[in-house]
Amino acid sequence: MKPVLTPEQAIEAIKDGSSVMAGGFMGCGNAFTLIDALINKGSKDLTLITSDTAFPDVGVGRLICQGRVKNLVATHIGTNPVSGRKMNSGEMNVTLVPQGTFSERIRARGAGLGGVLTPTGIGTEIEKGRQKLTIEGREFLLEPPLGAEFALIKAEVCDKFGNCFLPMATKNASVVMAMAADYVIVEADRIVEPGELDPDRISIPGIFISAIVKAALPAGNLADANLSWTPKN
Q1: 94-99 long-range Cβ contacts below 8 angstroms, 24+ apart
Q2: Quick check: is 86 in a domain?
Q3: pTM assigned to the model
Q4: Rounded to 5 degrees, what angle do the CA atoms 232, 192, 157 make?
Q5: What's the total number of domains in the chain?
Q6: How do 19-22 and 46-50 pair as beta strands?
């Protein structure tokens, strides 16, 4: 069984300066309860690894706007103007990574690989200072694995063994992030007993989950939750 903790207990180990991965895209699939707990705790100087910075008042965007992030690794920041201002002023260090490369680097960390070979960036500013390899006459950049100390994952359903169901596009990078972090906290709309979650609906196996938190504000109407997940008969 995985520990079921309060949000405050779950994030207690996240110190100022920690590296944190956050699943989701444009705020969809962000772990809002855990992000609120980080903000209330006063966490700062974080290294945030996330697909994007959402919007100023949504999910990870709130961490940006409240000045809690020192270093950001993301695929784009255009929907949150505060991110751009902080980058241009030097208040926040921003590393932009092509979205496919972003996901593959995280997957490489989770799989224990030494990196990813990609043609993306060849012939551009991106290749400066990076190792290049030529394979069968074609040049590739060697991109290193990307991981973090912590990952904040949002699930619709999680059983007490940590097995998670994430519907449709909310999976985003969350599945590979759960593999690539040292300590993974899942925030679930619904926590069920072992055996209630159909094995065919498991998006993230419980082996990757460290702790479970009940979401304070479930996404959507839980009365309709059975439309997207199936209990095991």
Answers
A1: 95/71, 97/73, 97/146, 99/51, 99/75
A2: yes
A3: 0.89
A4: 85
A5: 1
A6: parallel
Show Cβ contacts of residue 173 under 8 Å, excluding neighbours closer than 6 positions.
23, 25, 51, 102, 103, 106
State the distance between the two ends of the chain, measured CA to CA, in whole angstroms: 21
Q: Is residue 12 part of a domain?
A: yes
Q: For residue 78, what are its two tokens?
A: 């255009």
- pLDDT over 80 at 219, yes or no: no
User: What's the CATH code of the domain at 25?
Assistant: 3.40.1080.10
Pairing of strands 132-135, 148-159: unpaired
- Asked if the structure places residue 108 within a domain, the reply is no
Give me the pLDDT at residue 75, please.
Answer: 96
Output the pLDDT for position 227: 32
Q: Residue 88: give the domain boundaries.
A: 4-97+146-217
pLDDT tens digit string along 127-152? 888 899 999 999 999 999 999 999 99
Task: Quote the CA–CA distance of 75 and 48 in Å, as a whole number.
Answer: 12
Query: Tens digit of pLDDT for each residue in 101-112?
Result: 999 999 999 999
174 domain residue, yes or no: yes
